């Protein structure tokens, strides 16, 4: 059964739909372990706004999808493979990353991880291919 496709501005896919398609695609790969990051904060119904979580250990702009890229290789009961932290910021066709989201991706890439913005499954395929060609 195929899920209904939700359309947003200009008939393009909504960000939540793009995210779902990306997660479905990543679930078919054996070289990634991913999860959806819930970092929206707390909803305040009296003001109809989201409150950002602040303080020590709280990072603004955390990507929508986080995970580890790379398959663990086990030889004689010992892990010999090495993974890289993965961060995917999902945007709709017209969505723009915030400065905090751009900073988060920069930090991931500068520290040896793989971080990028994806507007489609094709963007994810390209992002993973450029990160480590032999993993594709």
Which labels suit this protein?
alpha+beta, Trna Endonuclease, Chain: A, domain 1, four-stranded mixed beta sheet, globular
Describe the structure.
The chain is of the alpha+beta class and 136 residues long. It has a single domain, classed as 3-Layer(aba) Sandwich (Trna Endonuclease, Chain: A, domain 1), CATH 3.40.1350. Helix content is 26%, strand content 24%. The chain contains three helices and eight strands. The protein has helices at 15-27, 99-110, 121-131; strands at residues 32-36, 42-44, 49-51, 65-69, 74-75, 78-79, 84-90, 114-118. The strands form three sheets. Strands 1-4-7-8 form a four-stranded mixed β-sheet, with helices on both faces. The radius of gyration is 17 Å and the shape is globular. It starts with 14 loop residues before the first helix and ends in a 5-residue tail after the last helix. 17% of the residues are buried. The model has no long low-confidence stretch (mean pLDDT 84).
């Amino acid at each position: 059964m195929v899920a209904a496709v939700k359309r947003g501005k200009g008939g393009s896919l909504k960000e939540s739909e793009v995210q779902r398609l990306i997660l479905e695609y990543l679930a078919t790969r054996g070289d990634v372990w991913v999860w959806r990051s819930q970092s929206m904060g707390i909803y305040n119904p009296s003001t109809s706004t989201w409150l950002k979580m602040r303080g020590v250990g709280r990072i603004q702009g955390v990507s929508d999808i986080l995970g580890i890229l790379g398959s663990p290789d086990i030889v004689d009961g010992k892990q010999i493979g090495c993974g890289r932290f993965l961060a995917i910021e999902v945007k709709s066709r017209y969505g723009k990353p915030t400065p905090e989201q751009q900073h988060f991706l920069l930090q991931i890439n500068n520290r040896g991880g793989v971080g990028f913005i994806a507007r489609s499954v094709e963007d994810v395929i390209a992002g993973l291919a450029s990160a480590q060609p032999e993993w594709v």
